From TrEMBL:
Main location: membrane
Organism the protein comes from: Haloferax denitrificans ATCC 35960
Family: Belongs to the sodium:solute symporter (SSF) (TC 2.A.21) family.
A Pfam match: SSF
Annotated InterPro entries: Na/Glc_symporter_sf, Na/solute_symporter, Na/solute_symporter_VC_2705, Sodium:Solute_Symporter
GO cellular component: plasma membrane
Coiled-coil blocks: none
NCBIfam families cross-referenced by the UniProt entry: Na_symport_lg (TIGR03648)
CDD domains for the chain: SLC5sbd_u4
Spans annotated as Disordered: 520-549
Subcellular location as annotated: Membrane
Keyword Transmembrane: yes
Gene3D superfamilies: Sodium/glucose cotransporter (1.20.1730.10)
Protein name: Sodium/solute symporter
Amino acid sequence: MTPSVFLQSGDLLPEALNISFKLVPAVMVVGMLALFLAIGYVFKVADTEGMWVAGRSIGNVENGMAIGANWMSAASYLGLAGLVALAGFYGLAFIIGWTAGYFVLLIFLAAQMRRFGKYTAPDFVGDRFNSDTARAIGALTTILIGFVYSVGQARGMGLVGLYVFGTDYVTMVIVMMAITVGYLTISGMMGATKNMAVQYVILIIAFLTAVYVVGFTGGYSTVLPQIEYGQLIGELSAEFSEPFANAGFYLWIATAFSLIFGTCGLPHVLVRFYTVENEKTARQSTVWGLFFILLLYWSAPALAAFGVDLYDASQYGPTFAANGGMSGGEGDLIVVLAAQLSNLPTWFVGLVAAGGIAAAIATTAGLFITASSAVSHDIYTNIINPDATQRQQVFVGRATIVALGVIVTITAFDPPALVGELVALAFSLAAIVLFPMFFLGLWWENTNRQGALAGMSVGLTLWVAAVVNDLIFHFSDAFAEFVPAIGAALVGTPLVFVVTIAVSMATDEPPERIKKMVRQCHSPEPMGQQQSAEDVVMSADGGQSPADD
């Protein structure tokens, strides 16, 4: 994998995966989807509090499970093993990046974001920097993240549905996305959160069972496949086992950096801290979430190694070896393929496939909710129509979910890269544009409106240039080498920090009211379940000022 060229998504070899209608797996998947729709209906909402933040009523373990399901998308369940299978050592950058970020989140952002107490990430940016322009840029970034991230989920759902139902890929993308959009328009954040807890149980049971059963039946492991798979490394190809055979040291570091700090800037992750009752629960749910995520991430490289070995030894291995190795389509389904090539019962492979669909739907739900709230709450209500009723806000939010679903579905018909790579682009954007605003906004009270606008504008411009250069025009090899789209944050995030700080220092300090809100985010005094830092400051000062711009 070169810095400027993504791994191609590639075609799937139908015979290798036994693509055909399978009754038992189909019944399992249909039953699972019906359960999701039923839960969405039971927990349907009609007000904005329930639609966006689930009434701030979610407990620590349940929120931890929702964080896990929200996080472990098709990129984790399918794409992570696929990246390791196709890119070997380079794939480990994704595992490190997608886990280490939670420690930064736990220490620096979780409790503080909960104390700030808003609905959305753009809400935080707009109120903290006293700017509707900053709010709009934050909302645009949130929508872009939701779009790019969701395309990867739609691809994952389509590929897995292809295995179970034996139809064509496009049909499965349409059906799966229609079901996802259907239950989200009914349920909002409350129903999505309840579903995420159920989806986590399904996906983690399916994945861990696959790791252990494939490991045991293939003779790769006896007790702990997560450790014992190491004996395979020396037997696999150099591209899989040798450090930096597929990507250089710089790209490895840049990718890991982008994913670590992108984790701390993802709106659909941060909104989980707004759904809990207080900052203590926010911290606890982060720890639980990290534990639930660890169970899959610790196991993914093992299943990738098993799958690569099984594939190479199968009748299909020589064919693809002659054509340069496994295709992207095979890699994205290595989790299901490993179970298939182990000659396990069809119902078992169907269980593994169902877990992939659950993972993709859970994350898509979180992404669509945050994107719809960015449009309805941050753009429509706060900028266009401040007098909007709750009914109007919920309607706009639901319309946004439908519109985004249509756009994502069409794009997923022919995606430009692998599932994991598409998702990594969203992390890169979050790390460059949003993470600096969250960190400086919570930890340096002198960060002002001018600094935030300058930093966000520079970051968004840099990310767009990197993506266009990598995926569309390829206007500069040198730029692609040092600012790859997947790892653009290594250059972009420090640059945005410097620009934001420099402009803030060169211009007027923010109002005292804003500084008090930042201090309140670090106060040891407890706050009410529905209370925000702004509420505390307003009660003390007796009012608030409008946005500066």
